């Protein structure tokens, strides 16, 4: 009997592209919009909306490379739109030029009152609105004409990397600016099909589950009216419901999915654009949380939160609400996701002093994990510094880029030069930009090195570097694979919850010797041991001063603090050598006598240990 797989696959692909996807929006009508080109650097909202806007049409060019154009969008929802199982959305295509989810034009959507709604990116182009027939639309879009610097190769020379050499010619034309009526059952059906279509492709030809899914997709197409997808979508979902309800194998790999938007604080764009990228991604995340109670988002780098405090204070206040809910999770405890090979021990200690100090002051929490998914190399001294800073977990996926040496473990104890150990995880999904596809989930299950001893790994999902972070499609994929036959199971929760679960699973994790990923490390000499001890003591003292903790903490003391535990008027020093402290709510206080004394003791101990080592 001939294998029908190829025929069913071709039929399903055509059905999705020609019938299902176009039916997601029942109705679409164009919006009216005007524009104003910012003559120089980006300007605040209040200044932008006070300008005189010129008429603009779809297809017109806008802005020079690295420029900014403000669009004023107006319109009215047609009075005859049927709102049953539907939602009004604004649809925006700024003229996206390539297949990249980021690295190009982006936009931030504002209300006339100056409230940020969400962002616009190449794969996140819809702005949901809580309005109905006859209601007016009045919005502003702050559009950034960031050129596609990455192109076909991020390493190719290009004049577009700098404002001085990129020229004045516009490199974008607007594509779409419409009001759309999203058909929710059709959209949900599209997510069902995407999940099942990805699943059968990962299953072996001998598996009955594979044939079952293919037959189900074929029955779906037979059930739907190709000329009226909207009225038959619910019947189609009923066909697929048994396939999606079948529970996962008891031995299926378990993945903890953590929302993520990796944003390089300094890379292929001006720093002011990094600040805007953070605001866009964070606004998307906050919007997504409003309709998805299980969705969590992890963000490292205190610097990026500090930028929000300075440039987008209202956005930071909204973030703080979600931090208290446990939904927006600060991670890492460092000022930025730093390199760890070139900086010395003092610089690394200050990363934690500044980072943890900020998280405690602003959010009342101290992250227990170090989060460095993209740093190019890791010093063999890092476990010692991590432990001295009060952290207990470490995560990165960068070693998966290694073309020569394959790491033997994904979850293990990383042992540093002085014998310090930190519980470490390398996500076997081998990316920090997952979309939670079946291909990615099965890769994690297939490659996971701790099989037989443990069965859990972490997957960071969301578009980074201007892609806007997680999307509603990704959250939908996580929900459908929570407990699905043939698929690894997926649970959306926090990195800390994952590490605690992984520790419980792996009762005796393997220990790796002290090695830097860039060079080998010699055995510690007596002098090196003495210096290591002094560095650890100084780092611990700095971290304690930053957090306002007493010198010793009970092992049972919780790491999470409520904002009320940050006492008004109490001094929180950035490090033992700073000349000023942070004393909420009075900035600019002088360093306390206590912190100066502590610094002197650390310095004295360090000197005496060095003398004894000699």
Automatic annotation (TrEMBL):
<dbReference type="GO" id="GO:0004559">
    <property type="term" value="F:alpha-mannosidase activity"/>
</dbReference>
<dbReference type="GO" id="GO:0009313">
    <property type="term" value="P:oligosaccharide catabolic process"/>
</dbReference>
<feature type="domain" description="Glycoside hydrolase family 38 N-terminal">
    <location>
        <begin position="255"/>
        <end position="504"/>
    </location>
</feature>
<feature type="region of interest" description="Disordered">
    <location>
        <begin position="443"/>
        <end position="475"/>
    </location>
</feature>
<feature type="region of interest" description="Disordered">
    <location>
        <begin position="502"/>
        <end position="614"/>
    </location>
</feature>
<dbReference type="Pfam" id="PF01074">
    <property type="entry name" value="Glyco_hydro_38N"/>
</dbReference>
<feature type="compositionally biased region" description="Basic and acidic residues">
    <location>
        <begin position="443"/>
        <end position="453"/>
    </location>
</feature>
<feature type="compositionally biased region" description="Low complexity">
    <location>
        <begin position="532"/>
        <end position="544"/>
    </location>
</feature>
<feature type="domain" description="Alpha-mannosidase Ams1-like N-terminal">
    <location>
        <begin position="29"/>
        <end position="155"/>
    </location>
</feature>
<feature type="compositionally biased region" description="Low complexity">
    <location>
        <begin position="570"/>
        <end position="583"/>
    </location>
</feature>
<dbReference type="InterPro" id="IPR000602">
    <property type="entry name" value="Glyco_hydro_38_N"/>
</dbReference>
<feature type="compositionally biased region" description="Basic residues">
    <location>
        <begin position="603"/>
        <end position="614"/>
    </location>
</feature>
<dbReference type="GO" id="GO:0006013">
    <property type="term" value="P:mannose metabolic process"/>
</dbReference>
<dbReference type="InterPro" id="IPR027291">
    <property type="entry name" value="Glyco_hydro_38_N_sf"/>
</dbReference>
<feature type="compositionally biased region" description="Low complexity">
    <location>
        <begin position="509"/>
        <end position="525"/>
    </location>
</feature>
<protein>
    <recommendedName>
        <fullName>Alpha-mannosidase</fullName>
    </recommendedName>
</protein>
<dbReference type="InterPro" id="IPR054723">
    <property type="entry name" value="Ams1-like_N"/>
</dbReference>
<dbReference type="Pfam" id="PF22907">
    <property type="entry name" value="Ams1-like_1st"/>
</dbReference>
<dbReference type="InterPro" id="IPR011330">
    <property type="entry name" value="Glyco_hydro/deAcase_b/a-brl"/>
</dbReference>
